[in-house]
Amino acid sequence: DIELKKKGDSLLFCLTDNGIGMGKDTLIHYFFKAGASFRKSESWLKDFTKEGDVKVERTGRFGVGVLAAFLLGSKIMVRTKNINQEYGLTFETELSSGQIELNKTECPIGTYMEITLNDKVVKSIEDSSPNNLNWFTTGNTSVVCDVLKNTSKGS
Fold first, then answer.
1. What single DSSP character describes residue 13?
2. Residue 151: what pLDDT?
3. Angle at 51 between CA 22 and CA 29, to 5 degrees
4. Measured between alpha carbons, how far is residue 150 from residues 11, 122, 131, 143, 153 in Å?
5. Half-sphere exposure of residue 55, counting CA atoms within 13 Å on the CB side?
6. Contact 74, 94 (CB under 8 A)
7. Are 11 and 122 in contact (CB under 8 A)?
8. Which DSSP letter does residue 83 get?
9. φ and ψ of 142, to 5 deg
10. Distance between CA 114 and CA 39 in Å, rounded?
C-alpha cells in the first residue's frame, strides 16, 4: 500500500510491502547498494527456490533500493522483518548521514518505509490531481490521497 501522511509540517510518502521482508545481510549488501540484485545471491537461491523452481513471485527488478527513496526526500525510516527472522530491523537516516545504525524491533513480516518528501516533490503532488497519482499502481495497490487537501496550500 502507498499512503501520503501529514506529520507536523512534513508530508510523508509511506510504503507498506507485505512481501518476504529484509534481513541484515539483504539491507547491507543489496538495499543500500544501487544495482545490486538479491535475486541472484546464493542466500536467495537457497531460501526461495526448490529443485530449480522459484517459490516467490518476482517483484523488485532494478536494485535501486535506498537510492530511489532519496530521489523523493532527504530523510527515510525503514522497518522490515524477513520471513526467516525472529525479529525485525529498523533504521532512520538522512542523505547527509555518514553511518546507518540498524536496531532490532518487533514488526510484521514485510517492509514499511517512510520518506519525508522534499519541497519540490510536495509541490508536484499539490499541483497534481489525485487521478494523476495512480499511474504506477496495479490492481492490488491502493493510494490514499486524502492528505493532499490538508497540505500547506490551505492550512
1. E
2. 42
3. 25
4. 10, 12, 17, 16, 8
5. 9
6. yes
7. yes
8. T
9. -120, 145
10. 24
Q: How far apart are CA 110 and CA 94, in angstroms?
A: 22
Q: What's the chain's length in residues?
A: 155
Instruction: At 152, list the grid cell.
Output: 500547506
- Please give the model's pTM, rounded to 2 decimal places: 0.68
**Cα-trace Rg, the chain:** 17
Q: State which amino acid sits at residue 99.
A: Q
d(CA 150, CA 38) in angstroms, rounded, equals 39
Q: Note down pLDDT in tens along the chain; length 155 residues.
A: 888 898 998 999 999 999 899 999 888 877 777 655 545 555 545 554 566 565 445 444 434 566 778 888 889 999 999 999 999 999 998 878 778 899 999 999 999 999 999 988 888 877 776 665 554 555 555 555 554 444 444 43
